[in-house]
C-alpha cells in the first residue's frame, strides 16, 4: 500500500522543499519589518517547520521497505518536533498585547491543522489503518496552505 503513494511523495517532497526555501528567501526581502513584529518571526518559523514536517513524512514514504511501525513512529516524532515551533508561536500570539487583534485564535489554529493531521496519520499508520496515508496526504496539503497563508502575512500584510 505504501508503494502506491510513491509518486505523491516524490511530488510533495519536491514541492515542500522548494516552498520552504522560497519562504525563507522571500522573508529576507521584508526582514526589517518582519522582526519588528512580536509574533511574525515565530509564525514564519512554525510555517517553515510545517513544510519541513511535510517534507520529512513524504521522504519517509520513499524509504524502500520501511514498515508501518517505523513510518508511523517517525511521523509522530516529526509532528512532535514541528509542534514545538507552533506552540512557541501560539504562546507569543496569546501574549500579544494588541487589543484590536480579534483574529488571534485563527492565527494559531491554522498552524496546528497540519500538525494535528500528521499526529492522527502517525497513529493510524502505526495501527496499520489504511486511512493513515490519506490523512498524511491531507496534512501535507494543509502544511502547504498554512505556510502560504503565514508567508502572505509576512510578505504583504506586514507592509500595510
Structure notes:
The protein has 160 residues and is mainly α. The protein has one domain. Helix content is 78%, strand content 0%. The longest helix has 28 residues, at 68-95. The radius of gyration is 16 Å and the shape is elongated.
Question: Nutshell version of this structure?
Answer:
By secondary structure, this protein is mainly α. 78% of the residues lie in helices and 0% in strands.
Number of β-strand runs? 0
Low-confidence segments, given as residue ranges, are none
Bin the helical content: over 70%
Order of helices and strands: HHHHHH
Taking all Cα atoms into account, the compactness measure Rg is 16 Å
Biggest sheet details? none
Which labels suit this protein?
6 helices; mainly alpha; about 160 residues; about 80% helix; elongated
Write the layout of secondary structure elements.
Blueprint: H1 6-29, H2 31-34, H3 40-60, H4 68-95, H5 104-126, H6 131-155
